[in-house]
Structure formats: C-alpha cells, structure tokens
Amino acid sequence: MSDDSSFAKPSSAKDAEEGLAFAPKFDSSGLVTAVVTDSKSGDVLMVAHMNADALRKTIDTGEAHYFSRSRNKLWRKGESSGHTQRVVEMRVDCDQDAVWIKVEQHGPGACHTGRRSCFYRAVPLKQTGSIALEFRDAEKAFDPHAVYDKK
Amino acid sequence: MSDDSSFAKPSSAKDAEEGLAFAPKFDSSGLVTAVVTDSKSGDVLMVAHMNADALRKTIDTGEAHYFSRSRNKLWRKGESSGHTQRVVEMRVDCDQDAVWIKVEQHGPGACHTGRRSCFYRAVPLKQTGSIALEFRDAEKAFDPHAVYDKK
Q1: Which residue of A112, B23, B89, B124 sits 20 to 30 Å from the alpha carbon of A124, by its own alpha carbon?
Q2: CB-hemisphere CA count at 13 Å for B28?
Q3: Which residue among A4, A100, A123 sits closest to B90, beta carbon to beta carbon?
Q4: What is the ipTM of this complex?
C-alpha cells in the first residue's frame, strides 16, 4: 500500500476552521480521535484513534483502519474478527483533531466484547458518590471467544 | 458545587468491561474523551474532553461540562454563548475511557464557528495526495462574533 501518508500541515486556527485544506492536527502521540457511528442506526459504535498511516489507509481504501495504542500498531478493523467497517462518509471537526466516520458495520458487532456497540452501559445522572452503571443494549451479538480465540 | 469528583478506580480489564462499577479510565492528562450527539437528529455535534471534575459536574447537574485543554480550565458548555446542553443520556464504552452523551442542544448551535455541529466538512474518500475538504451542513446557525465578542 502507499507509504504516502503525508497530509497538509496545520496552519492558522482560522484556516483550519474555515479552509478546505485537509490538515489533520495530530496530538503529541501522532493521533487524531475517530468517532465511529453506524450509518443506518446513527448509534455511536466506538471511539478509536488514527495515526497518519491509519487515516491515509482509511481514505485510500474506504475501509476503517485505526492505530491500536495498546498494541502499538496499525489495525485494519476486522482483521481478526472479520467484522470490517466500510466508510460511508468521513467528516472532520472545526480544529481538525477529530474525524467522524459513518460506517456500514459488517458482521454482528463492532465491540471486542461481543456487543454491537462499545457503549452498552449507561451512567445514571444526578447521582453522587460511587455510581452503578446500567446495562443498555448490552446483548451479546456474537461470542467473542469463538471469534477471537481461534487456534 | 461539590468537590467530590472521585470515582471508583479502574480495576482489571475484565471488570472494567463487564462490571457495573463506573470507574472511568482517565489518560495521562487526566481526561476522558466525550462524544456529543444531538438527541433528536443523532448527529455528532462535537468531540470534547472531561476531567474528573467536569465528569462529576455533568453527572451531578445533567448539564454538559468539559475541560478546555487550550484554556486549561473547566468549562460549562454555553457559559459564554448561552448555548447549553442538557444531557439526555450518558453512556460509557467498554474500557471506560470514553463517554457518549446524547444532548438536547439549546440555542442554534454547538460549534464556536457558528455551525450546529463541529463536523461541517467532509473528507472525500479514495483520493491520494493532498485532499480538498467539502463543506457539508456548513450553514452558519448563528453569528459567532455577535455571540462571543460581547463587550
């Protein structure tokens, strides 16, 4: 695949906000935040990070690529699970340090725990002290052991 | 306001994922990522960050609070613009380092540039080299100078 992952360099805040040059603002770790929503339901499926290479490969191929901070490597979504994500639309935010991708999620779920979305627990509001989460849309869409623990 | 912003401490990955103790995993800067969607349209309005205090105040009050990295301070959304956000639901993701809040956006827009959402430009896919963004839903919902440049 292309090793040209270079993008325009961020310029002034005004240009970043009102211009049409895509000049992603990577953080000190070289990452932008990626918010991933389901193109059909609109639900947030996951939040991940992209380095320049992941961003370039996502744009090149239309398939979601991320950078795994825990494994310190580029990661094509679905490379282990088969649950790939086809990007329907990519947007960038005002200061160009976050992208929003609307995806067609292939396979039953986006979350490695087996759920459709990573956001399967609600945080109750107007509580003080320690907070007990509540499961919400938390049914398992697939068995993660069967999917990931392949010999 | 309460100075009790303490939450349960993150435990094992398994407990973080499958348990019901809210134990947000703050990064090295003490922040979690907050994805903010419009409770009616489902659109992503903005991506921001919360420190423990912002998270606690959001939960306590049901009004969105963030931590501004550029200004290095707690920030109640709408404190300058009047465009507050009432939280309809808060969710947390599998590893508890990101929250998703669905909000009722008060006033015309969430973005300081005057748009309804911060994501008002599309990144065209399957392009190489430098990339020209395309405005999408980029109409100004309010005049940022009139809103922010008050004497």
Answers
A1: A112
A2: 2
A3: A123
A4: 0.94
The pLDDT of residue A5 is 66
- Measuring CA to CA, which residue among A117, A116, A3 is closest to residue A52? A3
Q: Identify the pLDDT of residue A2.
A: 41
Our CA angle for B136, B141, B146, nearest 5°, is 135
CA distances from residue B60 to A21, B23, B39 in whole angstroms, order as listed: 40, 16, 19
Task: Using CA coordinates, name the residue in chain A closest to B21.
Answer: A132
Query: CA-CA distance, B146 to B151, in Å (whole number)?
Result: 10
In chain B, which residues have pLDDT < 50? 1-4, 151
Distance of alpha carbon A24 from alpha carbon A36, whole angstroms: 17
Enter the tokens of residue A74: 């580029």
Residues in Cβ contact with B129 at an 8 Å cutoff, skipping those fewer than 6 apart: A4
Do the chains contact at A59 and B8, CB–CB below 8 Å? Answer: no
Are the beta carbons of B7 and A130 separated by less than 8 Å?
A: yes
Nearest CA-CA distance, residue B91 and chain A, Å: 4
What are the beta bridge partners of residue A103?
Answer: A38, A87
Q: Do B98 and A130 touch (CB under 8 A)?
A: no
User: Model pTM?
Assistant: 0.94
User: Would the CB atoms of B2 and A128 count as touching at under 8 Å?
Assistant: yes
Residue with tokens 């980029």: B138
Token pair, residue B129, equals: 């080299």
Q: In Å, how far are B22, B58, B97, B100 from B55, measured between CA atoms?
A: 12, 5, 12, 12
Spell out a b/e string for B127-144, using b for 16 or more CB atoms within 10 Å of the CB, else e: eeeebebeeeebeebbeb
